[in-house]
Design brief:
Strand order of the largest sheet: 1-2
Structural class: mainly alpha
Distance between the termini: 24 Å
Number of domains: 2
Number of helices: 8
Strand content: under 5%
Order of helices and strands: HHHHEHHHHE
Number of strands: 2
Largest sheet: 2 strands, antiparallel
């Protein structure tokens, strides 16, 4: 049951990150003036930017609730120390994100605040994925897998800076980050099965192409799609980092 709750938490956190990217894409961050309700109601009765912001807010609050339940289940059922620690870290980060959103609302986030918010989101995704992955078992840790997860997280944060700041050279920085991610992925997955390696490298290459098209051409590519792909890559890297002991 705890493992199912951990997987559900990963899915909800990923949904919160993706809907957050959609908020940025639609510039809907300040469309709801109150918190945690929406114009005094629990459900969104509006449309457009209001609904976009409500989806992100709802996913975030649901993630807090599920994280608390999963952390309590892990503590009560004697899950591994790594799983318990990872889940409580997720809870702390999610609460921090909620407090940040409540203090800023209804003003739009400044660039630094948006980047910190995004960093917390990626950190929550990593810790919740690790908790769901290790569960109650004893595991060794693949250093290459952990390093790959870290590189994916840094790459996602670099992309978050690009989405939230009009900074010269961000497009070039994103391209360099994508190339580095591709190289590190190939090195970190050197001992994995060929089909796993090819599939993961294909995902990284697809992300690099989407960013290149978005940054260097006039053809718009949804940042939400890019964030969703980054999230899947991060979760997969975290799973790769875990190895069950014999």
């Amino acid at each position: 049951m705890a493992r199912a709750g951990g997987v559900a938490l990963v899915v909800i956190v990923l949904a919160a990150i993706v809907t957050g990217a959609h908020v940025t894409e639609r510039d809907a961050g300040s469309s709801i003036p109150d918190f945690p309700l929406t114009y005094g109601e629990l459900w969104s009765s509006g449309s457009g930017e209001v609904t976009v912001a409500w989806r992100h807010r709802t996913a975030g609050l649901l993630a807090v609730a599920v994280a608390l339940v999963v952390a309590s289940m892990h503590s009560a059922r004697g899950a591994s120390r790594a799983a318990r620690l990872a889940t409580w870290v997720s809870v702390a980060l999610l609460v921090g994100m909620a407090v940040m959103a409540a203090r800023i609302n209804p003003l739009p986030m400044r660039v630094g605040e948006a980047v910190v918010h995004a960093f917390f989101g990626w950190a929550v995704l990593a810790t919740s994925a690790w908790s769901a992955s290790v569960g109650g078992g004893a595991h060794d840790v693949s250093r290459r897998g952990v390093f790959l997860a870290l590189v994916v997280g840094v790459d996602a944060c670099v992309a978050a800076v690009g989405r939230n700041a009009d900074v010269p050279g961000v497009a070039t920085l994103g391209l360099v980050s994508s190339v580095l991610l591709l190289g590190f992925s190939r090195w970190c997955l050197g001992r994995r099965a060929a089909w796993l390696r090819r599939g993961y490298l294909g995902g990284v290459l697809a992300l690099a192409v989407l960013r290149g098209v978005s940054d260097w051409t006039t053809m718009p590519v949804s940042p939400t799609l890019q964030v969703a792909l980054s999230g899947l890559l991060l979760v997969t890297a975290v799973v790769f980092a875990r190895r069950r002991r014999a």
